[in-house]
Amino acid sequence: MAKLSVVIVAKNESANIYDCVKSAAFADEILVIDSGSTDQTIRLAKNAGARILKKKWIGYGPQQNIAINASKGDWVFSLDADERISSKLAKEIIKSIKEEEFYVYNVPRKSLFVSRFMGHSGWRPDYTKRLFKKGFAKFTEHEVHAHLSTKYKIGKLANPIIHFSYRDLESVIYKMNLYSTGGARDNLKSGKKGSLRKAIFHGLWAFFRTYFIRAGFLDGREGVMLAIANAEVTYYRYLKLYYISQKNLKSKINF
């Protein structure tokens, strides 16, 4: 039977990594690519049964591709440190690899936002391409929210990844800053421009889309919180894009 590698990109994930690796124990190989952890991530990952690869951080997509190339399996499942593979999903993965009806599969996610697993707001079923036969897909080079790209027909699994995405408000604020900065850099590379007007417009639209179009109002107070968080990260992404662009322009002029 074809071999499966689960690859995990991590840095300072001591709160997550042990349970994450353990959830993938059914795989033939678990590879954790660590980008300079200063906590117990590496020790805990090894204790849980993972092989460790140390590489300097160069962006989420590039890190994933390094891990994929270094993996030994015929098939790869990409898993984030704050995610878990349930026993039902594990069985479905094994069955899909054995049958090989498709070479790439979408997998739904069930995600936590502070105190609720969201049922709406664009977060459910939240399909993401994660399972694929090596050579049939690769990650885009985006710094934030890179995704698997493929030219092949995509299958769909039924059981979700369990995603502990935001355990508390501190993690919401931390990731808002992280994602808005990375998103601004990605937008700059793609030629987009930022401004205060765009920041306000896109921020308001992000709230409206999350809360009304994607039915965030059905997720109670967490739906409101998520809509505001999406608005803020979008607002700051366009503002940061503007100031990064201005800084680069001044550097060229001064040069």
Describe what this molecule looks like in 3D.
With about 260 residues, this protein is an alpha/beta fold. Helices cover about 45% and strands about 20% of the residues. The protein contains 7 helices and 13 strands. The chain has helices at about 15-25, 40-50, 60-70, 85-100, 170-190, 195-215, 220-255, and strands at about 5-10, 30-35, 50-55, 75-80, 85, 105, 110-115, 115, 130-135, 140, 150, 155, 160-165. The strands form 3 sheets. It has a 7-stranded mixed beta sheet, sandwiched between helices. It has a 4-stranded mixed beta sheet with strand order 5-13-7-8. α2 links the parallel β2 and β3. α6 runs antiparallel to α7. The longest helix is centred in the last third of the chain and has 35 residues, at about 220-255. It is globular. The mean pLDDT is about 95.
* Largest sheet, strands/sense/barrel: 7 strands, mixed
Total count of strands: 13
Strand order of the largest sheet: 3-2-1-4-9-6-12
Query: What distance separates the N and C termini?
Result: 59 Å
Radius of gyration, taken over Cα atoms and rounded to an integer in Å: 19 Å
What is the count of helical runs? 7
Contiguous runs where pLDDT drops below 50 for at least 5 residues: none
Shape: globular
Mean pLDDT: 95
